[in-house]
Amino acid sequence: MQITEIYKSIQGESTHAGLPCVFVRLTGCNLRCTWCDSEYTFSGGRRMTLEAVLGEVERLSPERGLVEITGGEPMLQEQEVVPLMQRLLDAGYTVLLETSGERSLERVPKAVVKIVDVKCPDSGEEDTFHSANLEALQPHDEVKFVLSSRRDYEFARDFVCRHSLAGRVKAMLFSPAFSKDAAGARDASHCLLDPRQLAEWMLADSLAVRLGLQIHKFIWDPAMKSV
Ligand code: SF4
């Protein structure tokens, strides 16, 4: 499979935020979100066999901890990434899959925790979520919305209610988008939507969703890779 990088860091998002995690970042994406911070994954990378990827994950996490399969869009390499996820599960890892949900998730092993990043209008990629994937969601999965405006917030709020996500998944995450040009300063001023504003909207609507901040952007320079 085509791999951009494999590294160990702190998980910055989801209900696993704050935990050490090995990231397997696959090359290639078929979307072009306006605030994407992973454009370096769109091309390049190197070919690695499944065994080579497993070996690198084992070297970085001999304790068999948390592994996230991410990108780019990892499901573009479904033929290779599905067996990889199964082998990681068999070896005792807890496996997360970060995906936009644009590709079918039907073949993802059930024990994998899917973190589905449903694209909102200001991403420029609205309506790319493959609605049949609602049926593939497991009670341990999480659905994430990255927001940069009131319009995005209302889209996410209505999506959560319309599809009764509270009864389908473990968590619904509302996360302010972070400026892709941010460098140096590590504070909320680089969020494209003020977290306080988002919190007030959530409370006003009594939404049972989780406000998420990308904590790795507050720990390291937001422009850094492999963190
Ligand atoms: S889906 Fe992810 S990697 Fe692809 S353009 Fe959007 S944010 Fe970037």
Describe this structure in words.
With 227 residues, the protein is α/β, with parallel strands linked by helices. It is built from 5 helices and 9 strands; from the N terminus they run βββαβαβββαβαβα. The longest helix is centred in the middle third of the chain and has 13 residues, at 78-90. It is globular. α3 (150-162) links the parallel β7 and β8 (171-176). It binds iron/sulfur cluster. Iron/sulfur cluster binds next to loops.
The number of strands is 9
Percent range of helical residues: 10-25%
Strand percentage lies at 15-25%
Query: Count of DSSP helices?
Result: 5
Global structural class: alpha/beta
Radius of gyration: 17 Å
Major beta sheet, specifics? 9 strands, mixed
**Average residue-wise pLDDT:** 95
Hetero groups in this structure are: iron/sulfur cluster
Short characterization:
By secondary structure, this protein is an alpha/beta fold. The chain has helices at 50-60, 78-90, 150-162, 195-204, 215-219, and strands spanning 2-10, 20-26, 46-47, 66-70, 94-99, 113-117, 142-147, 171-176, 210-211. A nine-stranded mixed β-sheet has the order 3-1-2-4-5-6-7-8-9.
List the helices and strands and how they pair.
Blueprint: E1 2-10, E2 20-26, E3 46-47, H1 50-60, E4 66-70, H2 78-90, E5 94-99, E6 113-117, E7 142-147, H3 150-162, E8 171-176, H4 195-204, E9 210-211, H5 215-219
Parallel strand pairs: 2-4, 4-5, 5-6, 6-7, 7-8, 8-9
Antiparallel strand pairs: 1-2, 1-3
The chain binds iron/sulfur cluster.
